Each structure stands twice: as structure tokens, then as C-alpha cells.
Amino acid sequence: MPTRDQLLRAAADKESLAAAFQRYARALPEAFEGIPSGPVECEPYWRGPAAQRYLTQVLRLRRELDDLEDACLATAENLRRRARRLREDAARAPGPR
Q1: How many contiguous H segments (helices) and E segments (strands) does the chain have?
Q2: CB 10 within 8 A of CB 89
Q3: Which of 21, 36, 69, 74 could form a disulfide with 41 if both were Cys (CB 3.0 to 4.6 A apart)?
Q4: What is the pLDDT of residue 83?
Q5: pLDDT single digits (tens) 49-94
Q6: How far is Cα 58 from Cα 73, in angstroms, rounded to an integer?
Q7: For residue 50, is it within any domain?
Q8: Is the dihedral of CA 34, 40, 42, 43 positive or negative?
Q9: In 3-state terms, what secondary structure has residue 18?
Q10: Is residue 97 one of the residues assigned to a domain?
Q11: Range of the structural domain that residue 74 is part of
């Protein structure tokens, strides 16, 4: 059985990891900042079928980044929930407080 200190260290590690997931997830939308993502914006660079392929790819990548952001935020919440449980377990663990 893990000791109180081990449980608290594991909880702190999970909180730290959750903070990193959340920080990186919040930065993901900036990945497309300044990149043309509409028909009018890409006209100077792409024309004809190439423009449509480009726009299709940009939209797909944006959706995937949105999914990644959601997954990172969900993972951060799961890590925080697990950290709370570990702290609860630590409070019930025998030993010095």
C-alpha cells in the first residue's frame, strides 16, 4: 500500500500534468493564426482545383485541432479528478499528518 507521501506526490504530479495539458490545449487555436482559411483569403496563393483542395485540407486540420483541444482538456479534467481521489486516499492513509 502506498504511503501518504507517495499518494500526495502522485496527486501533485497529476495536477502538474493536467496544467500542462490545459496550457497546450489552449494554445492550439493559435496554430492557424494568420493562415488563409477562406476562399477570399487564399485567392492570392491558390486558384482553381488547388484552392479547393487547400481549403478542404485547412478545414479538416482545423476540425482535427478542435478535436485534439477537446481531448487534451478532457484528459486534464480526468487527471485532476484522479489527483482529487489520490488526495482523498492520502487523507485516509495511516501515518503522520
Answers
A1: 3, 0
A2: no
A3: 36
A4: 98
A5: 988 999 999 999 999 999 999 999 999 999 999 999 999 999 998 7
A6: 22
A7: yes
A8: negative
A9: helix
A10: no
A11: 4-92
| Residue 41 resides in a domain | yes
Q: What would the grid cell of residue 20 be?
A: 500542462
Interval 15-47: pLDDT, tens: 999 999 999 999 998 888 888 888 888 888 888
Residue 85: enclosing H or E segment and its boundaries?
helix 48-92
**Residue 54 is which amino acid?**
Y
> Is pLDDT of 96 > 90?
no
SS3 84: helix
Q: pTM value?
A: 0.81
Cα(first)–Cα(last) distance of the chain, in Å? 17
Residue 74 located in a structural domain: yes
Return the half-sphere exposure (C-beta side, CA atoms, 13 A cut-off) of residue 57.
Answer: 10
